[in-house]
From TrEMBL:
GO terms for molecular function: methyltransferase activity. It comes from Halogeometricum borinquense. This is Class I SAM-dependent methyltransferase. The keyword Methyltransferase applies. It comes from the Archaea.
Length: 194
């Protein structure tokens, strides 16, 4: 498990990002792409991903079997048949995914990855040509300034990564790296496999 990652309440995710599909489009995920949602939890992004990619496989990877169970139930209720729940430790990503994908998404957990360059290399291995490794992270701001529903939210300040710090990690693996803003308190850094 990554350091200091846990599943927040769904209510405050909705308060932060009321339209998760719009966030996914902002970071470059489109119809027709297969996606690995690493650290998916109970599926706040996984469920809209399944709709967005129009039937392509979405692999929800998490170490918490209970959260994956919640996701599987929600997917069945919404008739999202393209979601594949994978229980396992994301630090062994190549052993978990059955095939290469177009996008590896890591939202709100990269700050807790112990060996970030190694993890980025694993993601690179699993991408199809021109595939993207998308890291969505909290800005390096005081926690008192990142409030959701009038409460300070996000990881401890000691774990928050500046945009440039995240870019530096991805530059060690990917030839092309870009950044996008994900309001109100996040950014995305995207590495593209050439």
């Amino acid at each position: 498990m990554f350091q200091n990652t846990r599943q927040p309440d769904w209510d405050w995710w909705e308060a932060l990002w009321p339209e998760p599909k719009a966030v996914l489009k902002t970071v470059g995920i489109e119809s027709g792409q297969s996606v690995a949602d690493v650290g998916s939890g109970n599926g706040y992004f996984t469920l809209p991903l399944a709709e967005l990619v129009d039937g392509e496989p979405v692999y929800a990877i998490d170490i918490n079997d209970e959260l994956l169970g919640e996701l599987a139930e929600a997917a069945a209720e919404r008739q999202c048949q393209n979601i594949n729940c994978i229980h396992g430790d994301a630090r062994n990503l190549p052993e978990l995914l059955p095939e290469p994908v177009d996008t590896v998404l890591v939202a709100n957990t990269f700050h807790g990855v112990e060996k970030q360059v190694e993890f980025a290399r694993q993601a690179h291995e699993l991408l199809r040509p021109d595939g993207q490794f998308v890291v969505v992270n909290w800005h390096d701001m005081p926690k008192s300034e990142t409030t959701v529903a009038n409460e300070p939210r996000g990881p401890p300040e000691s774990l928050r990564m500046a945009v440039e710090e995240t870019r530096d990690v991805l530059r060690k693996v990917f030839g092309s790296v870009e950044q996008r803003d994900v309001p109100p308190y996040h950014y995305a850094v995207i590495g593209t496999r050439s």
